[in-house]
Amino acid sequence: MTHVIPKSPISQSKVYVVKEIYAPYFDPTFHSHPEFQLNCVLEGEGSRFVGNNITSFKAMDMVLIGPHLPHVWRNENKYFEKDSTLSTRVIVVYFHKDFFGEALRLKDEMGQIDRLFQKSERGLEIIGKTKVVVSKMMRELLELDGMDGVIQLLKILNVLAKSNDYHFVTHNYLISSNTEAETTRMNKVYGHVMRNFKHTISAEEVASLINMTRTSFSRYFKARVNKSFSDFLKEIRIESACKLLKEGKMNIDQIGYECGFQTLSNFNKQFKKVIGKQPNQYRNEYQKVAAESYRYF
């Protein structure tokens, strides 16, 4: 049975909803909704899927997601083990697309926030000092209600709108209509891949999970994610490899096999194709930066 953390919809009588959610793991369902979502992970790690982008996440991952942009923060498999004592914590703010109303949104003073909303259609990863400031403001928002809360949310959006501390999350992603049947199919695909990417996975076996032929599945997946299934699987494996390289507990050979690559040469080749450098170079550069950061801490 799939574990789903309840998400209360925002009633039309409310401007926003803010929650601090504690759970053994985040809701693993790939989904979308008509509200904006500002998400700040306080505890937990895994892979973040937004549109056609896949990347790893850990504590202090902050993202602003526009309406109808599909997303999921999926914890590592160890969080789902029966005897796991791991936990997650996140602050999430939902607010309506018509937060300000059409007339107010078109006023000159609202220009920066309007542009922020437009940018969020691709997803914005918030970084740097802005992330630190906004995470504190989100914690404060949890303690507020009524007009005090609305004013605090306006202040948060104003900080985000004025800042350049962000990266776009998706590239060339077109939001398509997401029916319940399509969401169910994509969740079966994502779930199967995340549970089994360390082993050989064929397009045929995934296609059979959602009652499609291999050819139909390939077309369907490419249309939904803007990349081939093989590229998607490769990126999942490389993201996992990057995390293990940063941890520094395994040698390069072990990491390649652990992440589903059958030979070291193929691991090196695919890693360089995605990341732009060899695994050992990636690890050495990360360790150097980490050592410098520690020295100045």
TrEMBL record:
Q: Where is the HTH araC/xylS-type domain?
A: 187-285
Instruction: Please indicate if the UniProt record lists DNA-binding as a keyword.
Output: yes
Q: Which domain of life is it from?
A: Bacteria
PROSITE patterns linked to this entry: HTH_ARAC_FAMILY_2
The record's section on InterPro entries has: Homeodomain-like_sf (IPR009057), HTH_AraC (IPR018060), RmlC-like_jellyroll (IPR014710), RmlC_Cupin_sf (IPR011051), Tscrpt_reg_AraC-type_HTH (IPR020449)
Q: Which SUPFAM superfamilies match?
A: Homeodomain-like (SSF46689), RmlC-like cupins (SSF51182)
Q: Which UniProt keywords apply?
A: DNA-binding, Transcription, Transcription regulation
Keyword DNA-binding in record: yes
Instruction: Give the protein name, as stated in the record.
Output: AraC family transcriptional regulator
| Species this chain originates from | Pedobacter panaciterrae
